[in-house]
Each structure stands twice: as C-alpha cells, then as structure tokens.
Design goal:
The chain has eleven helices and 17 strands.
C-alpha cells in the first residue's frame, strides 16, 4: 500500500502562527515536530519511506525537503498552483495507475492529530487487506464523534456488513457537510453518523474510473498531463495544463456522487482531532474541558479554559483572572481573542490584504 499525505493548505484559522510562507502544517503546534512530520511518523513502520508521498504546493518545496529528508525526492508531488483537492487527487492517482493500478492507496492529511497510533495502523492494515481483495471499492476511515461538532462533515452509516480483525465495516449512506447545531445534535444522539476525516483507502484504477465517469473534464485534463509523465517535458506540461483545471473539491467532484454500494465505512476511536483552528487545538490537547493549554514561557494565576502559546523565548507571558481566551504571541503579532471568536480570525486575516498589515499574513 502507498500513502499520500496532502500538505498544501494555508491555515488562516491558526493565524498568527500559520502564515502564507509557512502554513500550519509546517509549524510546531504539538510538541517539537510539525504536524506534517507527525503525519509521516505515525505511518512508520507500517510503511517504508519509499511508499510515502507528499502532495503540496511548489511554494513549500524547500520546507518539505528540510522537514522530511527521508522521503525520496521523487515522492514529493508539487502542484504549480492551488486548484483545490479534486485535480490534485486525479493527478496523483493517475500517476499511480501507470505503475500498479490495483495497489491500495490511502489518502491522508497533514494538519491532524492522532493519539492512538497503533490502532490507527491496525485500521490501515485491515483496510489495505480488504481493498486488495476488492479493488473496485473505497473504504472511508471515519471517527466516532465525541461531541456534536458543527465544524466537521459527517458520514451516514448503514448497517454493519462485516468485521475483520475486530474492525467493523459499515454500509455507506452518504455525506453531510457541516450541519447546523440542531442537526449536529441529532446526528450525535442517533449513533448513525461518524465524523468524516477525509481519509480513505482505494485503488488508483477505481478513482480514475470514477473521475472519467463523474468529472470527465478533470479526468481528460489530467490525462493530457500524464501522457508526459516520466518525460523531460513533464514539468512544462504540468504547468501548462494545471491552470486549466477548475477549482473543485474532491468531495463535490466524486465522493458525493458515488454509488453507495461501492463504499464501506470503518468508524473507530483513534484519538483524532482536526487542529486547524485554535479552539479545536485546545480541545485536542486538554484533559478536561476547562483545563488551560500552554506552550512556552507562561505564568498564570486564576486562569481557566484558555489556550496561551508564547513563541518568544525572552518574554514571559503572564495571565491573571482570565476565562475562555486564546492568546498567541509570535513576536511580531499578539493575538487575544475569546474562544468563541476564533472563527472570525480568517475574515480578519483576509481583510489585511492590500493594507499595511499584508506582510503579516
């Protein structure tokens, strides 16, 4: 099995740590490694380095090479411009199809936290074995919801269809992207829905055939590029035709239109969190809901339910009588916000474009 980790997002919800030149997946958010390094680490030793691929933007080429020196150069897949994930997956799977069309591939993301690594690896092994025997299937790896999140997508589960090595497979009934509060509560209480992580295992042949059937314009354009794969003019061809892709999400292009009988779902607790925003990072790292999460030189008195990150070694961050705040100090920016106001960060950063503060984004 091969693994592809997508690492091209901009991460404005984790500003001011995450910036255009070095977005969140390349920053030390948890411990002393970036999240893309952690994403690679949790695949070892189930995968060898030669079977791990990184898909990202050309702007991050030097960062990737620096942070992931053990990943072979040929396994670094650089998109010349951002066109959302649909075209990127079409191109990557098209490359794999030329060598081994029925070898399972797992698609993963670089900005997540997984605490139960051994169980995660067991799930990947079980899914790999299943797809090897069923190359025209796709297996979604979902997560049992911990609460009624309105910031995540959901997968509707059908009946349990089989069990392998203690891992259950469920029928696939469809997706729902970011429901409102009432609907999220209904999903959570029903026990029939799981968080959609964006993780799945399938074969290049299956995905390429689905693109040909459901998104023929994306498929045809990727084929024009792949005709030159392995040739000297490949990069020139990639740049020429990549700009012609429409920006379309993989979910919209393919997954929402899948025949339900072609998919099955594994839903387990792997200690997963999407740490793409400060409040979700706090939820992932806290041991109880009102615990403070701190990093760096921080001194607190009478502070609860807050995240305080200080990236300046020569400055002490002091907090007194605080409740439910996000405070992040990066040297050139000090962010102070209520936890409930974190969703406004993205719009704030976007408003800096074309102003004197543009250099800070």
């Amino acid at each position: 099995m091969k693994a592809v980790i997508f690492a091209g997002g901009s991460g404005t919800r984790l500003w001011p740590l995450s910036r255009k030149k070095s977005p969140k997946q390349f920053e030390k958010i948890v411990g002393d490694k970036s999240t893309v390094q952690l994403a690679v680490d949790r695949l070892i030793p189930l995968f060898q380095s030669k079977d791990i691929f990184i898909a990202t933007n050309t702007a991050y080429k030097n960062i990737i090479r620096q942070q992931l020196p053990k990943i072979p150069e040929k396994n670094l897949l650089f998109e010349p411009e951002k066109k959302d994930v649909g075209p990127a997956i079409a191109l990557v799977m098209g490359m794999f199809r030329r060598d081994n069309p029925d070898e399972p591939v797992v698609i993963l993301w670089s900005d997540h936290l997984v605490k139960k690594v051994s169980h995660f690896q067991k799930i990947l092994s079980v899914a790999d074995e299943y797809v090897q025997k069923n190359p025209k299937k796709i297996v979604f790896i979902a997560h049992k919801p911990r609460y009624a999140s309105v910031n995540l997508g959901y997968i509707h589960l059908g009946t349990k269809v089989q069990e392998k090595n203690g891992i259950g497979f469920f029928a696939f009934q469809g997706f729902k992207y970011k429901p409102d509060g009432d609907l999220a509560e209904k999903f959570f209480n029903s026990g029939e829905y799981a968080w959609n992580l964006g993780y799945f295992v399938t074969t290049p042949r299956f995905i390429c055939e689905e693109f040909a059937r459901l998104a023929p314009e994306v498929y045809n354009n990727s084929e024009k590029i792949l005709e030159h794969f392995g040739k000297k003019d490949f990069n020139q061809t990639l740049i020429k035709y990549y700009s012609k892709f429409e920006s379309i999400n993989f979910d919209n292009a393919i997954l929402e239109k899948l025949n339900k009988e072609d998919a099955e779902v594994i839903t387990e607790d792997i200690g997963w969190s999407d740490i793409g925003a400060w409040e979700s990072l706090k939820e992932a790292l806290e041991n109880h809901p009102y615990e403070n999460v701190i990093r760096g030189k921080v001194y607190l008195e009478y502070v609860r339910d807050s995240l305080l990150y200080n990236y300046e070694d020569k400055k002490l961050m002091v907090g007194i009588d605080l409740d439910g705040l996000i405070i992040v100090n990066t040297g050139d920016v000090l962010l102070v916000a209520k936890k409930t106001s974190v969703p406004k960060i993205k719009k704030l950063v976007e408003s800096f474009e074309g102003t004197k503060n543009e250099k800070l984004i």
